[in-house]
Amino acid sequence: MIQSQNQWFETSIGLLSDPQNQRVWSVIISLFGDMAQRPNDQISGAALTRIITPMGIKPEAIRVALHRLRKDGWIESARSGRASTHYLTQYGRDQCAAVTSRIYARDPVLPQKLHVLIADGGGGQEALDEVLLLPGYIAINRTTALGYGPKPKTSHDLLALEADNFSLPGWFKTQLFPTELTNSCHALLKVVSKISDPPAGLNSAQVASLRTLIVHRWRRVVLRHPDLPPDFHPPTWRGVACRDRVFTLLDQLPLPNLAELRDPVDV
Amino acid sequence: MIQSQNQWFETSIGLLSDPQNQRVWSVIISLFGDMAQRPNDQISGAALTRIITPMGIKPEAIRVALHRLRKDGWIESARSGRASTHYLTQYGRDQCAAVTSRIYARDPVLPQKLHVLIADGGGGQEALDEVLLLPGYIAINRTTALGYGPKPKTSHDLLALEADNFSLPGWFKTQLFPTELTNSCHALLKVVSKISDPPAGLNSAQVASLRTLIVHRWRRVVLRHPDLPPDFHPPTWRGVACRDRVFTLLDQLPLPNLAELRDPVDV
Description:
Two copies of one chain form a homodimer.
Chain A: H1 2-16, H2 24-35, E1 43-44, H3 45-52, H4 59-71, E2 75-80, E3 83-88, H5 90-103, E4 114-118, H6 124-131, E5 137-141, E6 144-148, E7 159-167, H7 170-176, H8 179-194, H9 204-222, H10 239-252, H11 258-262
Antiparallel strand pairs in A: 1-3, 2-3, 4-6, 4-7, 5-6
């Protein structure tokens, strides 16, 4: 029985691992964001090793990534004797919190209204470039931005209008959902569809490894496209099916208990 | 009494004449468009002279302009003995007909809906440039056009959307109603406001001179701006007041009878 759980785990982790595109520091952020985002959450070095090495990542690579994350202010580490624990800094928690709702949205809220801001060649360009730094704005072209919600009360040098009843040409759909992203999404859908329902009796570290990789790969799809109604999707976009399968799997792999991860009873 | 009619006429024609900006061939088109646009309408050379010379235009200049208009296919002339008559060609009538409804619209139909077409930097640009040749389209900037009515059923490579609830920056209003046009419109409003109510007993040629100049100057204002709701107007735009006064005057100077103009009984 243990054997068959381990076999299922090996197969699944093999499908989910993507060694070409797997930056270790980024995987660690996915892990903390998924399992240890609250102020007092911490993960031991031993648990990190148990969760991450099955992805084909060496302990030395984990140490290098942790060093980088400390240097960049994401993570702090504490040591007592040979044991170490790691936790997100306030900065790290803020960064994670900023995207958590988008990553974990099962049924993303699609904008009921959209507006458009248009610059002329001259002074408005600067205003438009500023606007495009805000969340909820997408460039249509050099002088035009699509914005979520009703138009802002003041739009200064920009021509603003509320828009509906769109005709959406292929170039715009491909700009919103670039081919490379559509391909990544399709590849992830293929992977998560191949993973069969998890067997009972997986240990906490195994659940954590799988959740981390699923969240990690989904994060790299979901944060790179805007939430827009289906008529904005290119015909090849499989994001809706991919999201469904991702959350079905995450529901079947419920968040492990951090205490169990810290003091493994199951190895 | 005749003296006072003539005095009023001299004053009014003096106000309306704008020798700097008065191309004779263009004045003649205004005249035909106003008074002789139907297939069998014609105006004698003598009548043309009686109508146009009071504007400060010499008979020689009228002959030169008629020559040009014949060469350009607008007008044909017939001669019998020393008398000549002139009439619009089919081409000339078509050209006049294409703009008559806009020139004489007392209460222009404002668009209930507007749409916007947006090109990307690439292929859509050509499609947009084509669209901008159509009536009912106005350039917003190099890659964006404002269109009257609902969006077209097919818009090919263009992103199309229906727009409302506009915020309109100064640059866009000035682009629609350029300062020079706003100034011309204001100058015409000042002139037509200074002209007092026409006295009774003006002769047909006097009425024709005044109508021609009013239509001529109004034509050069009305055809150079789009019919858009007041919130698209710059604060200095006086087009609404100008139109009102123009039509009040035209109503007080009803179209003279062409037969009377041909065979003057009143000189």
